[in-house]
Design goal:
NADP binding, 5-stranded parallel sheet, alpha/beta, 4-stranded mixed sheet, 515 residues, N,N-dimethylaniline monooxygenase activity, monooxygenase, binds 3-acetylpyridine adenine dinucleotide, flavin adenine dinucleotide binding, flavoprotein
């Protein structure tokens, strides 16, 4: 966004960044095993600038440190850091009475004025969530959240360690922690489906081929179902013989990653019957990967179908339970009662620990925004507005009562390959801002009925998928106790979403008042 506004549009731009370096989620999430689960080639910038064209990814899924090096490389090569103020947390922002200028307040007590305020706070990392477990504050060992992993690391050698949480983060960190700890206890409340990543390094010939195909891969991802450069085979899983189904699923399983879900049959995420076929296939895979049948059964999800929660991609997660120094503690059979000074207390008794790792996720999607005190027209607080009606936005870009305020990937946009979505959002918002400036207008605000209409649309849309069967998860904001389920994303095809965004721009932004 900085590059686009500063270098393409020639605006005066300042980025305020809470951390001391670029990278966002990859700056904060330094836990062992942190790795992107989207293929590197499309989890990078797609715009053409020869200054960053010589970057080479080492393999299919980059690790956190490689991702951080990438973002540093881009920021340095494009000379972005001179426009970024690091170590500055925004505590809030208030719209002036003129309705066209924002006063932004920083946690260190300063105020800055700007016509346009664009939030790029992301949807997860800036708001880690730790559950209020009785006694947590009493724990005398090392307590660490994966999303705030210390830069100097945590010494796990020879320690009794527990990981609480088995979402994407827990699933990534558990195999790595198991290799370092004396003993690892995995505290699992809800088992989840996980697909092998099949990570591999790129040799020079593979990389050369990827480079050759790169423009085409990006174009495909931009007009795809979920921001990835592949398509389903056009068939319903219900229309093929069981032999054909098995063969296709085995082939996709061998390829691994999200392609298994989005690149096979067209109706796995929309038709519960078709979904059940693939859900059963993955359940059998779980049983085959775990030696002890009792442990295996605890690891098989039985309360939600595959794809109804954010899918997980793993490297050796389930095999980790075959190690002698790893114990699965199934909290549905033996509930977590609390934390003591020396360990965790289950119904069956206490488990002594030196280190407790919380892989308990985030106050996702709305949390990063509501940590800031944002006040729009007539002093209306964003927190009050979203509390009353849910986080209504127009396509995830803007919300009424908050003129000249925009979000890159806000609530109501999509949960897909974020690299592709971000770049589209940046371009769309930059075009809108350019349009407002060219017209000589000072203020742009989305019409309230446009966001109401969009909220209705995404609510209808989600009912055509298996998402409502997913139980409580961050995808619906319901991972936070007491919070009701909400539709936070458009779960249709990304190409459709992109077309809707393009049509809005082509209409001259008819959903916006520009004055
Ligand atoms: O968080 P989560 P995450 N008692 O909310 C458990 C992205 N990401 O950090 O399911 C016991 O998914 C909770 O249990 P349950 C990705 O989008 C990306 O793992 O509520 N358990 C669950 O097991 C991902 O989806 C990458 O029953 C409690 C876990 O904590 C998103 O981040 C890598 C509990 C939280 O799982 C979030 O993933 C990693 C309690 N009181 C993450 N409270 C990439 O590779 C919570 N839990 C790109």
């Amino acid at each position: 966004m900085l590059y686009k506004l500063r270098d393409d549009l020639g605006l005066r731009v300042l980025v305020l960044e809470e951390q001391d370096g670029v990278g966002g989620t990859w700056y904060m999430n330094r836990y062992p095993g942190a790795r992107c689960d989207t293929e590197s080639v499309v989890y990078s910038y797609g715009f053409q600038d020869e200054r960053i064209a010589d970057w080479r990814w080492s393999g299919k899924y980059p690790k956190q440190d490689e991702l951080l090096r990438y973002f540093d490389f881009v920021a340095d090569r494009l000379d972005l850091k001179r426009s970024i103020e690091f170590g500055t947390r925004v505590s809030g922002a208030t719209l002036d009475e003129s309705g066209s200028t924002w006063t932004v307040n920083t946690a260190d007590g300063r105020s800055l004025r700007t016509q346009f305020l664009i939030s790029a706070v992301g949807m997860l990392a800036s708001a880690p969530y730790a559950p209020k477990i009785p006694g947590l504050e009493k724990f005398a060992g090392t307590l660490v959240h994966t999303g705030a992993w210390p830069r100097e690391g945590v010494d796990l050698a020879g320690k009794r360690v527990a990981v609480l949480g088995t979402g994407s983060t827990g699933v990534q960190t558990i195999p790595q922690v198991a290799q370092q700890a004396e003993h690892l206890y995995v505290l699992q409340r809800t088992p989840q489906f996980t697909i092998p990543a099949r990570h591999h390094e790129y040799d020079d010939a593979t990389w050369a081929e990827i480079q050759r195909q790169r423009p085409a891969l990006f174009e495909k991802a931009r007009w795809s179902l979920g921001g990835f450069p592949w398509e389903h085979n056009g068939k319903s899983a219900l229309d093929v013989s069981s032999e054909e189904l098995e063969a296709v699923l085995e082939e996709m399983w061998a390829r691994g990653g999200f392609e298994f879900l989005w690149g096979s049959y067209k109706d796995l995420l929309t038709n519960p019957e078709a979904n059940k076929l693939v859900t059963d296939f993955v359940k059998e895979k779980i049983r085959a990967r775990v030696d002890d049948p009792v442990t295996a059964e605890s690891l098989v999800p039985n309360d939600h179908p595959l794809g109804s929660r954010r899918p997980i991609v793993d490297t050796n997660y389930l095999e980790t339970f075959n190690r002698d120094n790893v114990t699965l503690l199934d909290l549905r059979r033996d509930a977590l009662v609390g934390i003591t000074e020396t360990g965790v207390r289950l119904e069956s008794g206490e488990v002594p620990l030196d280190v407790l790792i919380l892989a308990t996720g985030f106050d996702a999607v709305t949390g990063p925004y509501l940590r800031m005190d944002l006040r729009g027209r007539d002093g209306k607080r964003l927190a009050d507005k979203w509390e009353t009606h849910g986080p209504r936005t127009h396509l995830g870009f803007a919300t009424s009562w908050f003129p000249n305020f925009f979000m890159v990937g806000g609530p109501g946009s999509m949960f897909i390959n974020y690299a592709i979505l971000m770049e589209q959002h940046v371009e769309w918002l930059a075009d809108l801002i350019a349009r407002v400036r060219e017209s000589g207008a000072k203020v742009v605000e989305v019409h309230e009925d446009a966001e109401v209409h969009w909220a209705e649309h995404i609510n209808q849309q989600v009912d055509r998928t298996v998402i409502p069967l997913g139980g409580k998860s961050w995808w619906t904001g319901s991972n936070i106790p007491g919070r009701e389920r909400r539709t936070l994303f458009y779960f249709g095809a990304y190409r459709r979403y992109r077309t809707i965004c393009d049509e809005e721009a082509a209409s001259g932004y008819q959903s916006y008042a520009i004055s």
